[in-house]
## 1
Amino acid sequence: MHTARFLPPGPALPALLQGIHYAFRPGPFFEACARRYGECFTLRMPVGPPIEVMFSNPEAIRQIFTGNEDELRGGEAFIALQPLLGANSILALDGARHERERRLMMPPFHGERMLAYGETMRAIADRAIERWPIGRPFPIHPEMQAITLEVILRTVFGARKLIVLDEMVNVRTDFEAMLRMLNELDFTYDFPNGMRADHLSREAIALMKGRIGMLSMSAESATQADLDGPIGKGQPLQAIRRVAEWCRELDVPLMSHYIIGFPWETPAHVTATLEMAWELYDRYGVWPSMQFATPILGTALHDQCAALGLVPPEGLDLKDGALFQHRPCFDPPGCPPGYVGKARAAFDMKLAAREARKLIMNITYKCANRCVFCATGDRVSAALAWDKIENILREHREQGTDQLDIDGGEPTMHPRLVDAIGLARELGYRSINVTTNGRLLRDRTLAERLLNSGITHLLISLHGATAAVHEAATDAPGSFADTIAGIDHAMALHPAHVETGLNVTIVRANVDHLMPLTALAVAKGFSKINFQFTTPFGRAWEDVVPPLEEAANAVMRVIDRYANEIQIHVINAQFCVFPGYERYVVGDLQKLGRTMVFAADPRFPEQVNLYQWLGARREKRAVCVECPWTTACEGFQVFAREKPDMRLERSRPFVATA
């Protein structure tokens, strides 16, 4: 070990004073020492290595860097900087570990690579210099730091995008300044952990436009008392809506994080959060990221849940990938068992339904049947003109819609039906369904033409397995024989890629006859059967429909008997009357992404959102408050108590089928 008598001379100042000079006036201090003591002198430091020997002679420096690495251990000199650099920094390593890390770091600094970096460095410097003011002084040090940072990030690390912790906005007051710097360096970035809405400014969001993939905001709950109290976030709800509005105005994609199933929550709390998430998505396009309250050992949430016996005191196994996002780990005491999971499932179903876009086009209201339940039975007997059909198909395809349902009235009575299907295929509609009463398909030539026109699905309406039951619903003598003949042609002629289904509307006349009707569908070879609950429009009124529970029980008996033989879907029904059978209930959810186009009738709007149109005649009742499906259901149908005045409908000419 070397002793002080072998060290070169140096200043006799106390170590503390030498350290102050070293830290705050290094240049002048080193120059003064070199003039007095020569090219090699000794300094004494108050922290870190107590003795530092300084060299300025090039030959001496060369000998140091090429000397024996076991004797000249440079890493030990940086021991005081380990808290800043980290224990694995190359500057703090010696021996074999230093050599290994150095080999990993060296390729970017080889001569050929350095030459290749030249253009990048020059471009970075030129871009920075263009920002410098002319004719007045400015601090050059931060500018040089910015150039150096960008050169390192771009050339050494190849960085083009930064992932930044949410604390950068949640606790820093210079967030906008940081964004401006990152923008000047031409970086893109993301803040994935969820930022506080009340710490975001409109200026910050504007700066992030075009730079951020999706802005992530943490909302968590729709109950202000919970945000202020047990959650402890203290974020005002109006700030969340304000940020959503700014992002929509500035066209910045926004995601909001929510948590449901806290131990203190009731169904009202859970529903409020889900409804706020839907409102922000529906009104502002804010994508909802929903997760379940999952206590982590060491948190106040875990302590509370453990005290209530909801989770084990030793904590949950967080390696279970279903936690947080896919499965609640406990039932809040204030909620019925399974409530939170079902409520989340209902919300996810609603979200998925909204994303699937479909155009439903009623191309004519001409029809040979006069069904007692017909939702368009009060419309004038009009048809869409060809130019209108063409414009509507093009308009919705340009908006991204790729599913089409052609309905009526009776669409096979429109003379340009096959032309409309051909145009839809040409425009790129991938799914094309025709819903028909099937009466005209008794003409084999017409049936063959329709089935080979480009449709992908054919849905034929049949409301009874016998003429008496069916015609009690259609109010059209002879309609059963026509429809059965049409079904036989369709099932014999349809190409393999065309899916066929039977459509049944449930009324008092057929509610007790659903079992034989399903047996007929299976015998004819249909791949699916839809049971539609009547909606309160057109000819339908209170006396037409059976009691809700009676209709639901009849359908559930059919499911029990035939679910393994044919696909069964339940349309326009409430989830609550199908306990244990909810997976069969489509309800109104699929109509969220559907636009209904009506044939010409000045009394009605030309186009409507089908979900909103149907929801206008539904109502929420007291039972809906505690129902986990309430987010995905508009409530119960409200039918007129008196038969509708059908004088206008009766004035329509009867349309013969022959």
Note: The first helix runs from residue 15 to 24.
## 2
Amino acid sequence: MDETTPDKITLCDFYQQEVLPKLFSRLDRAFPELGWTPTEHDWVGTIEWNDADRGGASVRTIRCNCPWGFELPDGSLVSWAAYIAGEVAPDEEQLLEAVRRLAEMAGVDFPRRRFKAEELEQSHGEFRRQELLEAFFAYCRGTLRGEAGRTVVSLLSRRLCLDKARLLDLPLGLCDSPAEAREHLESLGFSKQEIAASRVVGDSRLADRLIIPWRDRWGRIRMIVADTMDRATDPRAPRLYRRVADCREPFGLDVALRGSAEGKEHLIMLGDIWDVLYFRAQGIAGAASLGGPWRHMTAGHWEMLADRGVRAVTLAMADDCTGREATLKAVSSMGEAERAPRVFALPPGSLDKARTPATFARLGGCGRFRKVLKQRLHAYHYAAEDMVYRHKAGEEWTDAGLTETLAEAVEFDARFYRPQTAWQLDRFFWPTILEQTGAKWGAVRLLLSRPVLTEGQFSWLIDDHQQQVHQIEPPLQEAAEDDYDEMIDELAEELDSCEAAADEECLAEEEPPCETLPFAASQADDEIEDEESEVEVSGVEIAEARDQSIETVTYQPSEEILASTAAEEEAEAVKHVERELVPDPLDIYQLAYSIWERKGRPAGADRECWFEAELHLSALLNNRDAA
């Protein structure tokens, strides 16, 4: 729900944001008399219909493809509030009673407060505005399905490579004449003032245009898109936007996040709304597009998607200069967001000769497009590849290109670095930069301005291990006491060996490379890198358990995590446990990292090192208790 407390929410907002979404998910139980059966994206039911053309009453099919209401066989739309009120336009009191009854059917608690007369009047006005918009689109939808739309449907079917049945199931309409649309709305009981205030039929340019409703996540129409026939396949064709309410959500999000749709686990962000419609017709509902007045993703969009529960987004823009620019701007805005889903992008050139994903799917099939999706790059990997592409002229580097690439990479790290996402930079961004430029990680990291983490900033890592810690707690109470003595001996040896390493590091900081380029490091730096067993590509592997389609990634802890050296942190963890008699998660993490360092940074050993650290510290407590 919007940022509105239950005691402040209006009746209409409660109806549209709370009641209708829940009702739409259980139409078969709420209205069994209509025989609703769920389909891939909507509902199909039956109704007894008196049709003079068919010689009397007959059972006809009805559809419900949005939460507001259902379509009758003649193409008109009946809202659920009107259906409850006896299929008449409800007045203020009837609307209040209808919402109360529908809330009960949906299993939603009705607000425990009295709505004032002015509040009911305001909600009734908002209800009428939404009713008018739905009626206008239902009229346009009926026009497209009628005689006037036959030629348009045939042409669209050929251009989009869709059969007519699938095409007519999409949220598409045709406005053949704004004047006739106005007359139709007046015949439904809407006043001239209501029609003028809606701003949907006052533009003569709407004539002979395709009408597409832009809905928000609740299914409410927030904008009317009017396209020419050419726009379905040519993004350069003119397009009209008629905004009727504030809405900054991507097109298609209402279906992409609905019910069993795959959009929450993996949302495909496309470049144009026609791409969304095409993939929806092919059974890929988890797709959305900005494709409108905003053109590019902003930090607000990323935060909104995260708040809606979207866990991963793949940017699938056009495979040309414009599309790559839009992808990079989206990645850049992600760095400004306080929260965002995991972001990926299609590799440049992955669509062969096709410009858009929809064209690629039309030429090679949706199965082929799904294979391309599996090759998606992490957003940071995509940004790194783009940097190399822009600055590398031909097969060989120029001095200027190499300098610009590394300088831009350092700026990118400074902009996107967060304690929670440092491993993503180290795993997906820097390996590409280091491999392509020949730079050394040991020298590059001297240029990075990453802050030292405080204890409070470790919570993101600690939370991931809390469950495992609780599971192994009983066995740890029975740990062998001999482990403590062995650990102390290891610590003493490690402290002696690391004091010399710390001195060498101080000398290296006093004498940085002569240039700002990482590959200009001294011979001594190269030797240190060799001893660190290629730190730029090694690390502790952690699996993203929530999305099995994404490959295992590598966490490369930053050197700044350690206050001075691994051994000093290890000793500090032991001293803290001796003082407090309780090992906190930060102590466990510091000791686990030190153990991992001592073992040569083996891949995939993060959990093993964590358990070993917990074992050592618990053994320490057992020895103290025994003493």
Note: The chain has a mean pLDDT of 77.
